[in-house]
UniProtKB/TrEMBL annotation:
Keyword Zinc (UniProt): yes
Residues covered by the tRNA-guanine(15) transglycosylase-like domain: 25-398
Cofactor binding notes: Binds 1 zinc ion per subunit.
Family: Belongs to the queuine tRNA-ribosyltransferase family. QTRT2 subfamily.
List of residues binding Zn(2+): C334, C336, C339, H365
Protein name in UniProt: Queuine tRNA-ribosyltransferase accessory subunit 2
Subcellular location field: Cytoplasm
Span list, region Disordered: 443-473
Native source organism of the sequence: Penicillium thymicola
Biased composition regions of type Basic and acidic residues, renumbered to the chain: 458-473
Cofactor(s) needed by this chain: Zn(2+)
Amino acid sequence: MDQATFASPAMTFSVLASTAPVLAPRVGKLAIPGRKTLATPHHVPLTSRGTVPHVAHDVMRDHTEINSLYAGLEDFIAKKQAPVYKTPAADHESPLKKFICVAEDMPLILGPRRFPPITCPPANTSASIALLTSIGFTQLSAHDYVKAVQKLRPDIAVGMVDLANKQPGSKRRGRMVDRTHAWTRDALEQLYGDAVPAQEKSKSAYFAPVLPLDNAQQSLYLDDLESEFRWDISGLALYQSASLGFVPESLAHLPRLLFSEPETPHTILRDVSLGADLLTTPLQGAASDGGIAMEFTFPAPAALQQSKSEPRPLGIDLWTADHTTDTSPLGEGCECYTCKNYHRAYIHHLLLAKEMTAWALLQVHNFHVMDTFFAGVRESIQRGSFEQDLETFARVYATSMPESSGKGPRLRGYQLPANGLDQRRSKPKAWGLLDDAKQKFAEAQSEIATPDTDASGLEEHGFAEKLESSLQQ
């Protein structure tokens, strides 16, 4: 029996099980006409230029259970006349999906920036936000973003938000609220306003952003979300876990998309316990890059619950030499494509050989682990045992992911922070010609015979004659 259902022309969201409107875990179902249904809570896979890192589209289709994608507009608008806007598509199709070769039934979420975003030195303005494209920094105006949503027709559009690169001061917080408020108001008016003809109104669901600020600092904006904007927004986009507590009860029926960067599944469970429905989890991508095969389930297996041994690691570092002859699967009892066809020794060999297949197979496995993890979370909430299972999971598993002992693949541009010349190197320098020349010069200098005595000692050994200065004469 549904406890609450939200319906709009773009999507329907039903809450199937929950103990409270806010700050409580809940199970739901998000349905978009003609698209795959999303059971929540669930994770949203992140893309780079429309592709899940290390996973080709055919691999994603045949060997994973990925059923939604998030893409950032900044990945596609490097050129002034972006090719993505010229992609031919029928009225019922998304040009963006055609451009990135994604099936039409795959729910696609579009935001202004990729996630996690790279910090941009240029500041946001009252009409635009700073982006980092493949050719440098630029500005994306709120008007152009709305036009992009209208042209690309994603299933869900995340509203533009003014986020600070560092802890904002009181004046900066005020500007963040004012700008986000104005951008949301104008976007809703241009997409769904009364002045827009019925046949031209956007079919995309709009998720209004909630700023990572205290409730009181954005109270006027939240009030307008409850009243003036309520009938046009289809969900909420949040940027910190604490914001889940600021959701008004009148908007509790809307799905909540949390842009988070959890470092462990423990953090994911905490966010779910606060009422997050959709979560971004860069965790599995980072684990794959580090050569880590994730190994955890929720609830924790009964055999582990009764064990009093040390906490079980959340993953396996496949770079270590003890996997050289280990022919066991990556995860015990795992049913993913990787574990059914390959073993730890093979992945270990691929990592040492720097074969791209290693990270592709790890990514397939880690996505399967995350899918299974969220399926267990939903079942636990429906059984009413989530809190107990959460405590058991925290006791059984380690509090942090294992450290990688390898270097991983070459970092891509969107993974390198734009912090200037003093940023830490991700890898040691490959070439050291200048340092090598400096060292050789120092060695050459040290080979010159240098006496270990003064002038008197040299005179005593007959190597020199000490002369009296003219002043002493």
